[in-house]
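Page 42, continued from yesterday. The earlier attempt failed because a stray header line got pasted into the input along with the sequence. Redoing it now with the clean sequence only.
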Amino acid sequence: MTQASIDVIAIGNAIVDVMAPASDDDIARLGLAKGGMTLVDTDRARELYDAMGPAREISGGSAANTLAGLAALGAKCAFIGQVAQDQLGEVFAHDIRAGGIAFATPARADEPPTARCLIFVTPDGQRTMNTFLGASQFLPAIAVDEAAIASASVLYLEGYLWDPEEPRLAMRRAIAAARGAGRKVAFTLSDAFVIARHGDDFRALIAAGDIDILFANEHELAALTGLDDFHEGIAALAPKVPTLVVTRSEAGAHAVSGGEHAQVPAEPVARVIDTTGAGDLFAAGFLFGHVRGMALETCLRLGAICAAEVISHYGARPEADLKALVTGI
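This time it went through. Structure tokens are written below.
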């Protein structure tokens, strides 16, 4: 196997986040599921956008956020995702490249427009996401750069993008390319609703040995295993995947790899402003440690530090110097 020239290549939704503060009354009035992620169509996206107060537009998407964290830490990264030939598509492409991430997927000329996620942030830091997938759900298999995947240490896949059929086929092609090149595949389950729809697919990927690193939170762990008890869920799933990483918000995180079990507490945060991107940046820290050959507990600590940084401000991309934050780890 040749030396990898890319640390992590990811496939995910190419989304522009539109974020605005909201009250609990706003959440109830608009009929939103507080703290959750709901897929919306064009009409609902327009309705919610019109109901938002002053907002910030920030390039996002779960896997792209993870790469932004990795690049900020010093990793070499590449992204595969679909935008449209429109203003938000240009915003996304500019932002991700400005972050030092290679992005070469051609923009799509046809409708629908570039994806956007409308995020309502309540005073307790909870984010309520309403996602219009737009062009991102039309990522074709032909857009998968097999040579780039073969040159990356880790292929990182976003569970959210498993829902639409076309990108699901693209990700299956990417998994085959990674496995053929002897590279590792990391997968984030993303949300319990995705597991409700595609849990059988995920369990089949795990059973086939196609996932080397699996990221989940405690709710996703329960949804995938059918076990409400956290420790029972870990015990049931860990033997089936080489590395299992499970986050528990303020209760910290656990990982099991090759029979080794590590756990770390959550990093202290003076004030939780916005939990958007916490899991994405945790994955960034963990994967950075992993590709650098660090110990399992160290990888968890890096993830916790990156997650703590991103929840201390609005937005799902790091604002502080992550390299400085992890110095000495």
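Notes: The longest helix spans residues 165-180.
Reminder to self: strip header lines before submitting.
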